[in-house]
Amino acid sequence: MKEYLPKNAYEELAVTIDEGKAISLDLAEHISQAMKSWAISNGVTHYTHWFQPLTGATAEKHDAFFEPLADGSAIDKFTASALVQQEPDASSFPSGGIRNTFEARGYTGWDPSSPAFIYETGGSKTLCIPTIFVSYTGEALDYKAPLLKALNALDKAAVDVANFFDKSVTKVFASLGIEQEYFLVDLALFNARPDLQLTGRTLFGHMSAKGQQLEDHYFGAIPERVLAFMVDLEQEALKLGIPLKTRHNEVAPSQFECAPMFEEINLAIDHNQLLLNLMEQVALRHKFKVLIHEKPYADINGSGKHNNWSMITNTGVNLLSPGKTPKTNLMFLTFFVNVIKAVHDNADLLRASIASAANDHRLGANEAPPAIISIFLGSQLNAVLDEVETARVAKKVKNEALLWHGIPKIPELQLDNTDRNRTSPFAFTGNKFEFRAVGSSANSASPMTVLSAIVANQLIEFKSEVDKQIKKGTKKDLALLNVVRKYIKESKAIRFEGNGYSKEWEEEAHKRGLSNIKTTPKALDVYVSEKSLDLFERLSVLTRRESEARHEILLENYYKKIQIEARVIGEIVNSIIAPAAFKYQNDLITNVKGLKELGLKADAYSSQSNLIERISNHINTILIDAEAMRQERKKANVLEDIREKAIAYDENVKPYFDKIRYHINKLEQIVDDGQWPLPKLRELLFVR
């Protein structure tokens, strides 16, 4: 920007982005011309508004800079209006009833806080401009618009509270580091599995004799072919401004992880969405397919997208880093405890933010956090909060120093000072919270919008309570401490240090009043509770209509994914699995007939006769269950209420999946390996 923009335009843009102000059309004209010059000098021919509709994928419509004139000549043209706003067809994107299918108009609007970038694919270079996506009437139809509003609310609320300690704080931004887990599978094998192609996961397949039980894959030497992919990915990512810092083997065979540097939250999410596209593109060069489904294989670990979240001031202070002095300790405690209280009071909303058909397979599967939202702090910080809660401080203090009598001085904590708890959905890890329950295929904007909004709301309430005490004559520091102590007591139930997988924790969580919502359709109900609707509307994050629309979109997405999986199961059972099993069964029957004709006694072919019977039983069962599942699907499809339809798919259709899988897996162990029509898990799981 410094190279292509006039100095005054660059400085105005920097201030505008920093302060979140609207960009004037004059400034936009300067930027559009500079952006066009930069792009064309790099071989770009087209531009697009790059946005994140509620489909879960990114979207783009490319337009050429080339524009013909009436006299037959042409010019390169890119104006301020083209930069700031475009009009893609909104009718074919999910809207939850906000847009009718015959109403096509929607708008994309430039987000100047996220840098434009040049993306190259298929030999073509495109200038990509990150944008929001809204309806003709202004409602948000994407993930970015509500996120930006939630971040704005968090900024204002956090600044107001930070000013109790430091008046020079004028801005607070949320930072985010996203650990992305994924699987790689050979492209040829992927193409031979219709279930992987259409649903992103294997709907059946007997587990390989060797899986992850030897614990020899995690952090092991990266296979040479995979390392070549990773190096290529890192180089391509760096071109797009995404410095990947970490790469390693994950727990399951052919499962890996990459993680970038921490960034401002909006940019971090844009970069993660871009990274997913880039991973797919680079993988194809190496004859791989990337699987980002939360559970592509049963019986081994699934994949998450751990979101490491904190808050940073414009003065460079991490508000979730413990300090060395009483003042900085109190500031840390204030923000630390407010986050805990926000999660405690809105645990169900946080659970809803990570709910999906794919993530339901992973949560609580002894490899990922349970569906019960709890917070892990570690023994040291738990002890600190317990001491603050029980310490006695005089209500009237003449000597300011005496205020701290009996209040612990938090020791300087090293990064990740405390032990890890892999079973915790929301863990404190030194100077940040790690939201571990987010699924690998999710757009992090959803949980980060909710987290930012609930923390903003909590900080607003905190300031109000402190101000009331100060107005009554309580000294500021004592007022702050009083409210912090109150919040520690009120949010104690959400803190848990033990094994989140245990049955005892489910029972204990129930006693504490914590929810354990295991399936998506019911988890999503909280989006339209009066409490959530009021919170989002009060903070101007989502209107009531937008919240209700998102609830409907998420329910529709859920039942459609289950519907697709059910259809794929039915098709593969009838046209692939059953014919292969019948063919092998006929081979056995022919063999038994031959043995009989030779005059051998029944004992000589009893094992083969048993195999024939077992095959018949398994085939019969899967055909009966596949038809029963189809009938349940038909019943669900006629339901008009979206929530009822989603629940019907969850409770009446989905249970057939495991029943059918069991019998297909048994057939896989019986049928001649050369005649089994699908690549097996032992072939898919180990990269060659």
Supply the key terms.
688 residues; alpha+beta; nine-stranded mixed beta sheet; six-stranded mixed beta sheet; 22 helices; 13% strand; GS_Type-3; Glutamine synthetase; Gln_synth_gly_rich_site; Gln_synth/guanido_kin_cat_dom
Describe it.
By secondary structure, the protein is α+β, with helices and mostly antiparallel strands. The protein contains 22 helices and 17 strands. Helix 18 (544-597) runs antiparallel to helix 19 (606-637), helix 18 runs parallel beside helix 21 (655-670) and helix 19 (606-637) packs antiparallel against helix 21. The longest helix has 54 residues, at 544-597. The radius of gyration is 29 Å and the shape is globular. The two termini are 45 Å apart. This is Glutamine synthetase.
Q: What is the topology?
A:
Layout (H helix, E strand, L loop, with lengths): L6 H13 L5 H17 L4 E5 L11 E3 L1 E3 L5 E3 L3 H5 E2 L19 E5 L6 E5 L2 E12 L8 H19 L9 E15 H5 L2 H6 L24 H16 L4 E6 L5 E6 L2 E2 H21 L2 E4 L13 E9 L12 H20 L1 H7 L3 H6 L12 E2 L2 H12 L35 E3 L4 E3 L9 H27 L4 H15 L12 H10 L7 H4 L6 H9 L5 H54 L8 H32 L4 H12 L1 H16 L10 H4 L4
Parallel strand pairs: 1-8, 15-16
Antiparallel strand pairs: 1-2, 3-4, 5-6, 6-8, 7-8, 9-11, 9-12, 9-13, 9-14, 10-11, 14-17, 16-17
InterPro entries: Gln-synt_C (IPR040577), Gln_synt_N (IPR008147), Gln_synth/guanido_kin_cat_dom (IPR014746), Gln_synth_cat_dom (IPR008146), Gln_synth_gly_rich_site (IPR027303), GS_Type-3 (IPR052725), GSIII_N (IPR022147)
Protein name: Glutamine synthetase
Pfam families: Gln-synt_C (PF00120), Gln-synt_C-ter (PF18318), GSIII_N (PF12437)
